[in-house]
């Protein structure tokens, strides 16, 4: 079985610390948001686990490594996707990120 395809996010210099960028997985079509938290890259499904709404329209707090959903105020840790406060109790899926050929890549690796 072959490895799932990686989706190009952007060139490495286009996602600076404190910034985020959203893409769609080229195979599954899943929305993914990639965060640069203090030079480390993390990717989560771009959808709140409380209600189906895009996280990327919310506020990325680069000091606390969290993203807040603008719909109801649920917050998630960008490093692992865990819910930090109500009304969300379930984490959002985390995806792998790699740096290769001068770019940032991610993929939906769920079975």
Would you give an account of this structure?
The chain is mostly beta strands and 111 residues long. It has a single domain, classed as Rieske Iron-sulfur Protein. The protein is 0% helix and 38% strand. The strands form three sheets. A four-stranded antiparallel β-sheet has the order 2-3-4-8, with no helix packed on it. Strands 1-10-9 form a three-stranded antiparallel β-sheet, with no helix packed on it. The chain has a three-stranded antiparallel β-sheet with strand order 5-6-7, with no helix packed on it. A hairpin with a 6-residue loop joins strand 2 and strand 3. It is globular. The relative contact order is 0.25. The model has no long low-confidence stretch (mean pLDDT 96).
Which structural traits does this protein have?
Rieske Iron-sulfur Protein, 3-stranded antiparallel beta sheet, single chain, 111 residues, 0% helix, 4-stranded antiparallel beta sheet
CATH superfamily: Rieske [2Fe-2S] iron-sulphur domain
Task: Classify the beta-strand content into a percent band.
Answer: 35-45%
Poorly predicted segments: none
CATH T-level fold name? Rieske Iron-sulfur Protein
* Pattern of helices and strands: EEEEEEEEEE
User: What would the principal axes of the Cα set say about the shape?
Assistant: globular
- The oligomeric status of these chains comes to single chain
**What's the number of structural domains?**
1
Task: Please summarize the sheet with the most strands.
Answer: 4 strands, antiparallel
Helix content: under 10%
> Between the first and last Cα atoms, what is the distance in angstroms?
12 Å
Q: CATH top level? A: Mainly Beta
Number of helices: 0
Number of strands: 10
Average pLDDT across residues?
96
Protein name: Non-heme iron oxygenase ferredoxin subunit
Domain Rieske: 7-106
GO molecular function, one term: 2 iron, 2 sulfur cluster binding
Pfam family, one: Rieske
């Amino acid at each position: 079985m072959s490895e799932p395809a990686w989706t190009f996010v952007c060139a490495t210099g286009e996602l600076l610390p404190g910034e985020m960028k959203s893409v769609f997985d080229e195979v599954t079509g899943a929305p993914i948001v990639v965060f640069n938290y203090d030079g480390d890259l993390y990717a989560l499904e771009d959808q709140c686990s409380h209600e189906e709404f895009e996280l990327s329209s919310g506020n990325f707090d680069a000091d606390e490594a969290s993203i807040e959903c603008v719909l109801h105020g649920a917050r998630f840790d960008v490093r692992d996707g865990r819910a930090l406060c109500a009304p969300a109790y379930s984490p959002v899926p985390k995806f792998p990120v790699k740096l290769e050929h001068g770019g940032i890549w991610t993929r939906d690796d769920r079975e």
